[in-house]
Automatic annotation (TrEMBL):
Pfam families (UniProt xref): SSF
Subcellular location(s) of the protein: Cell membrane
Recorded GO MF terms: L-proline transmembrane transporter activity; proline:sodium symporter activity
Protein name as annotated: Na+:solute symporter
Protein family per UniProt: Belongs to the sodium:solute symporter (SSF) (TC 2.A.21) family.
UniProt source species: Pelagicoccus albus
Keyword Thylakoid: no
Phylogenetic placement of the source organism: Bacteria, Pseudomonadati, Verrucomicrobiota, Opitutia, Puniceicoccales
Stored Gene3D superfamilies: Sodium/glucose cotransporter (1.20.1730.10)
Any GO BP: proline transport
Length: 610
């Protein structure tokens, strides 16, 4: 696509600006690893929340969401539960506080607060590091694939799309590695402002240039409804017949069974806590457990504009290009709907701003992923096992090399993936299927030890590669239960066949984190020394808050969808539900955080056993 000089200048100006941010952050980032990866735990929670949300506002994910809403309409709002997006509610309600109380630097470092047996501890750290690196490599491939597709539609044909993608990856890598998390966070905030601006612009175009009637004319019955029965009941045969083939190919015709599987998988993954990626890094970077909870709450609120953008692009594509799409090859790639619509619709100047906004979306995801993943290579492998006594500046220099290494592997992997959906499916249902069981048990079962954790993680990782190959033609969500059960069996067997962790370590962990679950023997041990120790009885309140919070989170998705497609009655009903949820969460969650604020001042953090 040919771009005007104004558009090209805006893109170049943006790239130079982010490099300048990295250079300005270089000095502070080089103080030590804590400063490089966590910003010295001095960054305000609302900036961390915006940065976290910006990191989730990526090109590839947005392209996928546009294709989802295009095909499934309002029902597409359920499909992000594949990740699951509502895991932020579990973090907001209680898990972020539990994680932040550790005082750890990485997810691997966190293991020293839960396990002490030397063999089990090292094995558990190794399992987390392997998972983290696989996740970073997978997300690098995912981001690169999406960026190459975006470049093919937007940037001039002077270079190959993969060449453009490599250049932009290089720019992101340079500024992220120079400035550490400070560069990442403050660049993310600027990038988020751009993303909000383009979301408003595209939502405005969609609402002013289309009508409710014009949208209904190009969509099947039920497209604007959230609700579904056992089957999806969307018939595109008289409008865009190729979409019926896509629905069949993706396996969503029997939507209720798929939804129940997605809900089960989402619950198990959410209870397990965040994967060792930028989400956990932002939690560990907060000042205290209360701010960790508030930060996770901001993430859900900050993603509201994304759905205005997604629905705006979808509506413009449907109303203005349905006729062209009807005449196209049935193999048309609907993952590229977003760049096709903007390329044809947006005027000079504004097009450059929107391209900059989507480059910001890519960079905010990519830089956060790389910065978080590098921490595991440097802190949990290089420093712990290879060179434990180097200076801080030596470790920072190795961070640069580690960043280039993980990105190179991810980019190479992207050439073997056929589509964004392939990569996303393996990460969210395959790889995370093996993560769920041992990480769920680490909070709720005292008998879990480091060896059991290692067995569960490695069993899950291996089965995420093996089971899809043994069951060809089966989707990742269908394979998830098998991966989870293999991982669960390996976790329990590994724990029961080896000796438990010592009660001193378990008691210290229980007193500090205050988890609920099967902790009876540990509680009895603590009461021998301190009879006043009581179990955590907050689980009913947490469960209620998670249920209310999930509805609250979902309303933040569907309200902008109904707004842009002009289903105002449904929108106002959802606004009412949202306000009711806010009232309940204010009384049952936020006010309780304020009460716990003073209590937390008297409670020292766990110091990880390094």
């Amino acid at each position: 696509m040919e771009l005007h000089l104004i558009d090209l200048c805006l893109i170049c100006l943006y790239l130079l600006t982010v490099l300048a941010f990295g250079a300005l952050s270089l000095r502070k980032a080089g103080a030590d690893l804590d400063s490089y990866f966590l910003g010295g735990r001095k960054v305000p929670w609302y900036l961390l929340g915006i940065s976290n949300a910006s990191s989730m506002f990526d090109i590839a994910g947005t392209m996928w969401l546009v294709s989802v809403v295009f095909v499934y309409g309002a029902k597409g709002a359920w499909l992000p539960w594949l990740w699951p997006t509502f895991n932020q509610v579990f973090l907001m309600v209680y898990l972020s506080q539990w994680i932040r109380r550790s005082g750890a630097l990485t997810g691997g470092d966190w293991m020293t607060t839960r396990f002490k047996n030397p063999l089990g501890l090292e094995m558990s750290r190794l399992a987390v590091v392997v998972f983290a690196i696989l996740g970073v490599v997978g997300f690098s491939a995912y981001a690169f694939k999406g960026l190459a597709g975006f470049a093919s539609a937007f940037l001039p044909p002077t270079l190959e799309p993969t060449t453009y993608a490599a250049i932009l990856v290089g720019v992101s890598l340079v500024y992220a590695s120079m400035g550490g998390i400070r560069s990442v966070i403050f660049t993310d905030v600027v990038q988020f402002s751009l993303l909000v601006a383009i979301s408003i612009v595209m939502g405005y175009f969609a609402m002013t240039l289309t009508t409710a009637e014009s949208i209904r004319e190009v969509t099947p019955d039920g497209w604007a409804s959230l609700w579904f029965g056992r089957e999806l009941d969307l018939d595109w045969s008289n409008l865009l017949p190729q979409l019926d083939d896509i629905i069949a190919l993706q396996g969503y015709e029997l939507f209720f069974p798929f939804f129940m599987m997605m809900l089960l998988k989402g619950f198990l993954v959410s209870v397990a806590g965040p994967a060792p990626n930028f989400d956990m890094q932002r939690i560990l970077a907060t000042r205290n457990p209360r701010e960790a909870a508030l930060m996770s709450g901001v993430v859900s609120l900050a993603l509201f504009p994304r759905w205005i953008l997604v629905t705006g692009i979808t509506v413009l594509g449907l109303v203005f290009y349905s006729t062209d799409l009807r005449l196209q090859d049935p193999a048309f790639d609907h993952e590229l709907m977003l760049p096709h619509v903007i390329r044809e619709f947006v005027p000079i100047g504004l097009k450059g701003l929107i391209i900059v906004g989507f480059l910001a979306a890519f960079m905010s995801t990519f830089d956060s992923t790389i910065n978080a993943g590098t921490a595991y290579l440097v802190n949990d492998i290089y420093k712990r096992y290879l060179r434990p006594n180097l200076s801080s500046s030596s470790y920072i220099r190795f961070c640069y090399l580690a960043s280039f290494l993980v990105v190179g592997i991810g980019v190479a992997l992207s050439y073997f993936m056929e589509s964004i959906n392939d990569i996303m499916g393996w990460i969210v249902s395959g790889l995370w299927g093996g993560y769920a069981a041992p990480n769920l048990l680490k909070w709720h079962w005292w008998r879990l030890n480091g060896i059991g954790y290692f067995c569960g993680m490695m069993g899950g990782i291996v089965s995420s590669f093996v089971l899809p190959e043994l069951l060809p033609g089966t989707s990742y969500i269908q394979v998830f239960p098998g991966i989870f059960l293999v991982s669960l069996a390996a976790t329990v067997a590994g724990s029961l066949l080896s000796r438990p962790e010592d009660f001193e370590t378990l008691g210290r962990f229980y007193k500090q984190v205050r988890p609920w679950g099967a902790w009876g023997p540990v509680l009895q041990y603590l009461r021998l020394q301190e009879p006043e120790v009581a179990p955590n009885r907050d689980w009913p309140r947490h469960i209620v808050n998670v249920a209310v919070g999930t509805v609250w989170h979902f309303m933040l998705v569907v309200i902008p969808i109904f707004l842009v497609i002009k289903e105002f009655k449904s929108m106002w009903i959802c606004v009412g539900v949202f306000m009711l949820c806010c009232f309940v969460l204010k009384a049952s969650w936020f006010d309780r955080l304020e009460k716990e604020k003073s209590e937390a001042k008297e409670m020292p953090e766990i110091v990880p056993l390094r």
